[in-house]
Each structure stands twice: as structure tokens, then as C-alpha cells.
């Protein structure tokens, strides 16, 4: 015996399924016009890896956090593997954007890891629950490879743990439609350990590489094979592009 579903019910079911498949894309930028024009923002449901030899990496990370709160109104989960968070820089950015400092800092949920095993626990066991609890729009994992380069660990173990973390981050990013940023400070460490660069570059949807040159920074979108030279200014100093916006 078969049961026929009314035509209206069929249509409603199909529409509901289509709506579930439609995920709203969110984009976070840095509010630095030259860089935003080049990078085209950081998209939701994607992992971006920023690999840098310059301290500007940390300015960009702080700017992305403040802009995510300002533009999307959500919270942030920041897993810090290098003690890289600077509350004074965050406060300065808030002043520049006329945002309430206390309210903004309250939206940034920070967890610090001091060993590779703590990093694994935070990402694999705790991160998704925290994203669900806070409804976070942005996930930042700063200085990700540093703790896995511990000389007391076998490199084969470090590689497996990093792969496990990245796989978990990919699942969380897709499932919760977050913008996910991984960072590394110090390009040379990518050359010392076999397969480190391959793992981090190949598993990211976007790779932004920042290299020091004589009087400028060379920014490269590795997967798109595009480059630009950027002459940095202090984050609190407005450029002409920003002034006339």
C-alpha cells in the first residue's frame, strides 16, 4: 500500500530542502582599501591561511576581529598558540571605528594553548561547542604551527596532530558557515620541517603570503598566483583612500 503526498506538501518539502542548501555568504575585510581590493575579503565556509614574515600579520588579525564584530554583529572565537593577542591594539581599532571598547572586547572569546596537546584539545574537543554557544562568525587560530614544532615531539606525531586539527577546522567551518583564519609568523620555519608548508597551504581555501622587501611588503595570493607590493602605514594612521571614502 502506498501513500500519496499532497502536491502542496511536496512543494513545501522541496522548498524547505532548497532553503537548507542556501547558505548566506559572509565576507570580512581589513578596512585597509589597498589590501581589501587585492584580497577581496575573507569568505565564510572557507579557511584562509596567512603566512607572514612581517609583524603586520598581527595588525591584520586584530583588524579582522574588530571588523567582524562591527560588520556582522557576531562574536569571535580566538585560539591563540603564540600569545599574540594585544588588547591595546584592539582598543585602538575600536576608537578609530568609534566602537565601544568594553562591548567589543566582550565579544572576543579567547583560549590560549601552551602545548601542542592543549592546542589539539581546544580545537578537536572544545571549539565546535564554543562556536555553537557564542554563535561566532569568525574563528581565529593564531600562530598555529608553533607549538607543533616542539623539539621534544616526534615530527611524525606533530604532522598527524596538525592534520587532525585541520580536518576538524574544515568540518566546523563548513558546518557553521564561519570565516576561519589560520596564521603563521615566520616564513623560514616552513622550510625546516618536511611537509609542513604542503599541509597548511593545500588544506586552505585561500593563502595570503606576506614577505618583507626593501621598502615594502610583497603580498601574494598563492593559489590565485597574484601579487602586489604594499607600503604599510601604522594601523591608526588614515590613508588618503580611507580619508576620502
Summarize the structure.
This protein is α/β, with parallel strands linked by helices and 245 residues long.
Query: What is the helix content?
Result: 40-55%
Main pleated sheet: 8 strands, mixed
Rg from Cα:
20 Å
General shape: globular
Tell me about this structure:
This protein has helices spanning 7-21, 33-39, 56-72, 87-96, 101-106, 116-134, 155-176, 189-192, 196-202, 240-243; strands at 27-28, 42-43, 46-52, 76-80, 108-112, 138-142, 179-185, 206-212, 217-221, 226-230. The chain starts with 6 loop residues before the first helix and ends with a helix. Helix 3 crosses helix 4 and helix 6 packs parallel to helix 7. Mean pLDDT is 88; it is low at 1-6 and 240-245. It is of the alpha/beta class and 245 residues long. Helix content is 45%, strand content 20%. An 8-stranded mixed β-sheet has the order 5-4-6-7-3-8-9-10, sandwiched between helices. 31% of the residues are buried. The chain has one domain (25-243): P-loop containing nucleotide triphosphate hydrolases (Rossmann fold, 3-Layer(aba) Sandwich).
